[in-house]
Amino acid sequence: MGNDRADLARQLLVAWRWFDDGLRHSLREAGFGEITTAQSMLFPFLDPDGTRPSELAERAGATRQGVHQLLNGLIDKGYVELVPDPTDGRSKLVRLTAHGQNSVIAAQRSLEMLEGQVRNRLGAKQTDELRNLLRQGWPTEDRGPLDIADRH
Amino acid sequence: MGNDRADLARQLLVAWRWFDDGLRHSLREAGFGEITTAQSMLFPFLDPDGTRPSELAERAGATRQGVHQLLNGLIDKGYVELVPDPTDGRSKLVRLTAHGQNSVIAAQRSLEMLEGQVRNRLGAKQTDELRNLLRQGWPTEDRGPLDIADRH
DNA sequence: CTTCTTTCGTAAAGGTACTTGACTATCGCA
DNA sequence: TGCGATAGTCAAGTACCTTTACGAAAGAAG
């Protein structure tokens, strides 16, 4: 019995899960398998020149403490480092290590590949339409993150 | 031109979270606030005449043990009950209590209301288009998988 | 300069979700 | 009848996130 009921919410979750599983699989194959889902969600919010943990928390919509724990995991695994903020003695700056940058590039590539698969299935035009509908339906304020992996 | 990079995945997650937050809020207001996200995801897989926990696990794409724990929570709070399966001495059947049925009705109403809000923003035609694109892009084979956020 | 307040990073504890591994009871079948 | 597969369960461990709390540094006010 399939639930022809309008379950938009479930569809959204299914689609997201598909992306997340694919991303995780790619990262594992690329040797970055230790990154957890929650940790990986921090990366898109990192500036190339260093980001304060509290700023990171705000961008990611999480608490300082939660981010702190995720960062600890990433630091232990060598993906980011925490250096003192020269402009504020209370604060620190999160920065990607070389290893972390490589993982970001791998993730970016994987996501592009996954979107390519969607595009193959829906067609380019419809995929853009999907993106637009999502953006219209659930506008996300434009915070300016920006991954490092844009060249290529 | 925000040719935004691969952020389809993020958009999907944002949209799903919007639904989930709205649902949780409604349930809390309706007096069913103790149900957690993970527990609530079990409900759509329940048959009116009782469902085996292992069957539930398969439908939800989770392990028997995981479902077992969620069920324990729901049993403690009086939403479902576990009765012996008359046809199989090893097995049991999960059934909604009256309280549980009320919560399902409330959830359904809430989801419809939330979808109505989406429809207000996107328009009826575009909303149907969104649903169709999601269905095409991620065909939910029969019983959609269904897990919650923090697996890795 | 001192004091008050805010903001910063952290720490500890609690709870939920999920995993792996193992155990018991029952069923189905050769 | 015996054995393997299946059902439910218990237990321990990990990940994530929350609340509460605290000390250190910065900023504002006197």
Reconstruct the topology from this structure.
Two copies of one chain form a homodimer.
Chain A lengths: L7 H22 L7 H4 L12 H8 L3 H13 L3 E5 L7 E5 L1 H25 L1 H14 L15
Antiparallel strand pairs in A: 1-2
Chain B binds a DNA duplex (30 and 30 nucleotides) through helix 4.
How would you describe the overall organization of this protein?
The structure is a homodimer of 152-residue chains. The first copy, chain A, is mostly helical and 152 residues long. Chain A has one domain: Arc Repressor Mutant, subunit A. Helices cover 57% and strands 7% of the residues of chain A. The first copy, chain A, contains six helices and two strands. In chain A, a hairpin with a 7-residue loop joins strand 1 and strand 2. The radius of gyration of chain A is 17 Å and the shape is globular. The C terminus of chain A is likely disordered. The interface between A and B is large, with 47 and 48 residues. Chain B binds a DNA duplex (30 and 30 nucleotides) through helix 4.
